[in-house]
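Q: Can I see a sequence and its folded structure?
A: Here is a first one.
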Amino acid sequence: MPSVTHDDAPLLADLMPWSVAPPRLGRGWPAAPDPGSLKARWDTLVKAEGPDREALFEPTRSRTLHTAVGRLPGRRGSGGTEKLVRASGPCPEPVRVLLAPYDEQWLIPDQRLIDAARPELWRVADERQVFVAEAPGATPPLLVTSLLPLLRPGRVRPLFRRPGGGEPNLAPGLLEHLGSRLGSTPTPLDVLAWITATARPDLTVPLTGDADAWERGLELGRRMLWLMRRDGERPKLPGGRRPYVRAPLPSRPVALRYDRDEEALFLDEGRISPVPPQAWDFEVGGERVLEQWFAARVAAPGPGTLAAIRPAAWPQTWTSELLELITVLALLAELRPLEKPKLPAPVTATDLGKAGVLPVPGAARRPASVLVDPEEGPEGQLALL
C-alpha cells in the first residue's frame, strides 16, 4: 500500500519516485566560486610529480592517483580516462553547479577527482533538466535548480528520467489522474511547480482536484521555480528596494556583518544597502545563506594545498552575484508555501491507490536505461553498460 500521513497526503518520494544520492566530492579543491582558480589548481597538480602530486591530490579510499574510472557521461571533454598519476594537458572546462543552498559555484567535471560522481545524474543533465534537492525541515523544504546539485544530505530527484525532457520522473498515471480531476492534463513542469509551492517540511505534498486552487498553487510555484533556477530574466526588487554598493568593497574582505537598523550589509568597510532583514535571516539547515556564501569565498585553506589557489582580490563578478543573491532571497522570503488547513477536493494517497497510481512499480524507482552516446571507460576503453 502507498505510504500515507495523518491527512493522507502522498509523499514526494511516491510522486517523484526516482532519486539519487547527491554527488560526493571527497576533496574540496575541484570546486570553487570562480573557474580561473580551478584551471590554476589543475595546472599545479599536473606539473607536480611523485609524492608532491599525491599530496596535492588528497587521496581517499575511493580515489587515488592510480584509480581507473571512465569519463563522466553526457559531457564531451569532461576529463581524460588515463590514471591521474600520468595525467597532463589542459584542465577540463569547469561547469556551473549548485554547491550549497543558493550558492552557484564551478566544478572540474572529471570523474577521477570525484569520490562519488553519480553518473546516472550526469547522463540526464541537460538544458531541459530540472533537479529537485531535498532540504527536509527547511522552508521551503525543496531546492530546485537547472544545475547539477552537490547538496548534502538530501536526495536528488530529476524531473526527467531521460535527456531532452523525456519520460517525466513522476508516478506512472499521475498526470492522467490529475487531468481527470482538474479538467485538463498538467505538464510535468506544472506538477513540479505545484510540488514546490506545497511541499511540507516532512516532504509530504498535498494535492487538489480543484482547478481554481490548482491555478493559485501553480502561480506561486512558478514564481518560486523562476527565483530558484535563475535561468531566465534576472530578478529585480522594486525601485528603492534594490541593493547597491554604497561604499566600495575592499580587495580582500575578511568579515561580514549586518546592521538591522540601517538594513546594510558590511564586508569590512564595504557597504551594500538596502538589504532587507528577510534576506539576511534566510536560513537553510540552521545556517544563514548569506553567511555561508561569504565564508565559501573568504575562508583561508591550509597553505600548500590546491584549495589555497584562489583569486588574489575580490572579483567584480562576486559582487554582482551577491547583489543577485540578496534579491533572490528577499523575493523568496515574501513567498510562503501554499499552506491551508485543508485544500478543496483533495487528491489523497488513498485516491491515488484506488486509481492504480500508487504504489509505483519498482522500475520507476530505478534509473532508465540511457545511452545516447558511447561512453569512454578507464584507459580509453569503451564502457560496457
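Q: Show me another, different protein.
A: A second, unrelated one:
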Amino acid sequence: MGLGKYVPATTEEQQLMLESVGMKSFEELYVSVPKELRINELNIPKAKSEFEVRKTMTDIAAKNKIFPAIFRGAGSYNHYIPALVKQIAVKEEFLTAYTPYQAEISQGVLQAIFEFQTMITEITGMDSANASVYDGATAAAEAVNMTIDRKRKKVLVSATANPMTIQTIKTYCVGADIELTVVPAKDGVTDVSSLAKLLDKETACMYIQQPNFFGQIEPADTIGELVHEHKGKFIMGVNPLAVTVLKTPAESGADIVTGEAQPLGLPMAYGGPYLGFMATTEKLTRSLPGRIAGETVDANGERAFVLTLQAREQHIRREKAASNICSNQAHCALTASIYMTTMGPQGVKEVARQSYSKAHYLAQELTNISGFDLCYSGPFFHEFLTSSPVAPEVLMAKLEEHHILGGYPLGKDILWCATEMNTKEQIDQLVTVLKEVTV
C-alpha cells in the first residue's frame, strides 16, 4: 500500500509563493517569531498504511465497554433509531452538501431544513423555528440573548435546569455584561415564591427546563403568567419527545422554546455532535439567530426553497446581528427530520408513552427496596431522583459487573432514566442486583 502526502502545494509551488512575497525561505518568513517559540521539528510517528490505521483504531475501540442495558439520561438518552434513518442520512448528496448558499443547487438540503423547521413548530406549537443551532445549551443561551435590550438586562434561570445549560447561559451573560440570577428550587421544581420576589421591570426573561434536570414537571403555566405580568419573556427548554404527550410550550405561554434534539434519531455517541432547536412566536421571528429556510416558487411557478432569514453577522452589519453563530447542525437536523418522518406522529408519541410507563415501573420497583426513596413526590416524565442506601459509586460498579449502566450519581442520590429501549426483564435484573448489594 502506498503512502500519500496530503499537502496540496508542491515544493516548487511553495518556493514560488515565498518569492512572490519577497522571501527566500520559510525561516525568513517567520523571522519576527522569537527563536525560543519556534518548533524546529515535529515529533510525528512514522506513517501507517490504511490497513494498519484500521487495526489500530479497532484495538482502541475494543477498550470501550458497550452496555446492553442503560438506565442513565441526564441530557443524553438511549432511544431506538430505525435503520432507515442512517441509511438515508448517509446518502452522498446530503453528506457532501455543507451550507446551502446556492439555492439553485441546494434544493434537497433546503427542503430538508424546511421540513425540520415545520416539524419543530408542530411539536412545540410555536409559529416559527430556525434551521438549528449547535446544541441544546447553546440554544438556551441564544434564546436569552434574544430578549436583552437597553432597559432589560436581567436574566433569571431556574436552578432545576441542566447544570451545563446554566453554565453556558452564564458564559454568554458574562461576556455581554448581563446580570444573571439563578432562581432556587423547592421540592424539585422552580420555587415560584422566590421567582415572584426576583421579577421586576428590568427582567428580560426567565428560563426553565421542562421536564427539568431532576425529571420533574415544572408548573410552567404559573411561571409563564408571572413572567408576563412583569413584561418579561418566558423561555422553555424542552425534551422534544416529552412535549408530544405533555402540554405544548405554546399552551403554557412560552415566548421562545429551545431544546436538545438528540432524542430524535441521534445516537448518544460520547456526547455529540448534537442538535439545538429553537422556535418562537411570529413577533420574535426576526430575532432568531442563524437561518430560516423558506418555501417559495421559482421563475416557472414551481415549488422552491430559499434561505429566507439570515440574521447573523456574516450577512448583515455586525452591530445589527442577532447572533454570531456562523453555522448550524444541518446534517443532524436532517437526521432528526428523517427520524420524525419515519416514526410518524403516532410513533413518536408511542416512544414517549413507553418511556413514561417504563420509568414509572422502574420507580415503583426501586422504591420497594429499602433505602431507595423518591426524592420528590411531583409528577415526572422518564427521569426521577432517588436516595441510595449505599454510596452510588459502589452501586454503579456492581451494576457494571452485570453489564448494566446505572443512573447518574448526584451526590448521595441517583438520577434514574428509562426509555422504550428498557425491557421489563432489564428492569427486573437491575432491581435484583440492587437488592443483592443493599442486603
